[in-house]
Design goal:
binds L-MYO-inositol-1-phosphate; globular; Fructose-1,6-Bisphosphatase, Chain A, domain 1; 7 helices; alpha+beta; seven-stranded mixed β-sheet; D-Maltodextrin-Binding Protein, domain 2; single chain; five-stranded mixed β-sheet
């Protein structure tokens, strides 16, 4: 939690400052601050748990076996780079498990701009700033708010456009806010009823997925060898109807 807060503080201090871009593609940016935040998180976590591994968006430290941190130092980098205060720090802790191989047991998502800290410990209720949160109870798709992630690659974007066309007249509102971890935290808190995206990385969704599960929702994730993680998170009531309306993952182009 301290590590997430420290990185969030660095993000907040640089909110309005010009950002140095390390790498750019048409639909993605990597900032110097991504790396600085990850180093800061890494230092804190490794000082306390020197033998544990780390999978991070800005590089990984491997450990033979045992627990592993999964870190997205700034999730919603493009928002942050453009001064849009919708980005967060996402940290999960996984322990080895036979099935599924990835099993987060701790999840923290910190939004430094709204000062919202979500925490989850497997087997306990999810919390937002210490108060228990739950997924929504909405059962009617027509009243639901569904978040769709746009992705970075052509294939994911094409999928999102199709999903949007299939859902836009069925739900109350669609949203695409640019941070997978916050979209999951919003599902866990009942703000969104569901969230879908393809082409994700594990560090985008490991902590948020645990939040959704601990808040009583469903986190349905499938790994495609060539298309990253396909994800549908929902309040446990809208899944079957959403699955009928969402398009299949498109073939590689
Ligand atoms: C981003 C996600 C966003 C998704 C992008 C990307 P980043 O993470 O949070 O929702 O659409 O593809 O993965 O790169 O800002 O950490």
């Amino acid at each position: 939690m301290d590590a997430a807060r420290a990185a969030g503080e660095l993000m907040r201090r640089h909110r309005r400052a010009p950002k140095r871009v390390h790498a750019a593609t048409q639909h993605d940016l990597k900032l110097e601050l991504d790396v600085r935040c990850q180093r800061l998180i890494e230092r804190r976590l490794r000082a306390a748990f020197p033998d544990w591994g780390m999978l991070g968006e800005e590089g990984s430290v491997s450990a033979a076996a045992g627990p592993r941190w999964v870190v997205d130092p700034i999730d919603g980098t493009v928002n942050f780079a453009y001064g849009i205060p919708h980005a967060c720090v996402s940290i999960a802790l996984e322990v080895p498990a036979p099935e599924p191989a990835r099993r987060p047991v701790v999840g923290v998502v910190y939004d430094p701009f709204c000062e919202e800290l979500w925490t989850a410990l497997r087997g306990q209720p999810a919390r937002l700033n210490g108060r228990v949160v739950r997924v929504s109870e909405r059962t009617r798709l027509a009243e639901a708010i569904v978040s769709l992630g746009a992705g970075k690659r052509l294939r994911a974007i094409r999928h999102m456009v199709e999903a949007l066309a299939g859902l836009v007249h069925r739900v109350r509102k669609l949203r695409s806010m640019g941070s997978a971890a916050l979209a999951l935290a919003y599902v866990a808190s009942g703000r969104f009823d569901a969230y879908a995206e393809i082409g994700l990385h594990w560090w985008d969704i490991a902590a948020g997925g645990l939040l959704v599960e601990c808040a009583g929702g469903r986190f349905e994730v499938r790994e495609h060898p060539d298309a990253g993680f396909e994800l549908l998170a929902h309040n446990g009531r809208l899944g079957p109807r959403l699955k009928r309306l969402l398009p299949p993952v498109p073939p590689q182009t």
